[in-house]
Amino acid sequence: MQIHVVKSKIHRVKVTGADLNYIGSITIDEDLMDAANIVEGEKIQIVNNNNGERLETYVIPGPRKSGEITLNGAAARKVAVGDILILITYAIMTPEEAKTFSPSLVFPNDGNLLK
Asked: Which amino acid positions bind substrate, per UniProt (predicted)?
């Protein structure tokens, strides 16, 4: 048996942009991606604390040190600039692997990274 386990989490990050005319995805500052162990093209769950929306898309890197969090394409309709998001990725592993796995958790607003 395999289970889905939290692999990465960026907790309470602020939306900096929403681009309806882009082809899709979420753009995340590449420094944040590195800190959270998220790779380009990875599937990500987005939880919007302001309106309760939950959606999934894939990640593209944004400029380093920019703090950019931009929802692109149809996902742009699910957020407003300034909304607070939780970004989560998952890994599939055995229960035995999950017992010793440690996710990468980033809390940017606690001063450990960026804005």
From this structure: 57, 73-75
- Would residue 103 count as lying in a domain? no
CA angle 30, 43, 72 (to 5 degrees): 65
Kindly name the residue from 58, 90, 102, 104 that is annotated as catalytic. 58
Task: Answer whether residue 105 is part of any domain.
Answer: no
Contact of 1 with 95, CB cutoff 8 Å? yes
Catalytic residue (choose from 8, 22, 25, 104): 25
pLDDT at residue 23, as a whole number: 81
Q: With a cut of 50, say whether residue 72 has pLDDT above it.
A: yes
* Residue 113 covered by a domain: no
Domain span at 88: 3-95
Rounded-to-10 torsion of CA 98, 112, 81, 58: -30
Query: Domain holding 87: CATH number?
Result: 2.40.40.20
Residue 115: predicted pLDDT: 42
Tally the residues of the chain.
115
Known binding-site residue numbers for substrate:
57, 73-75
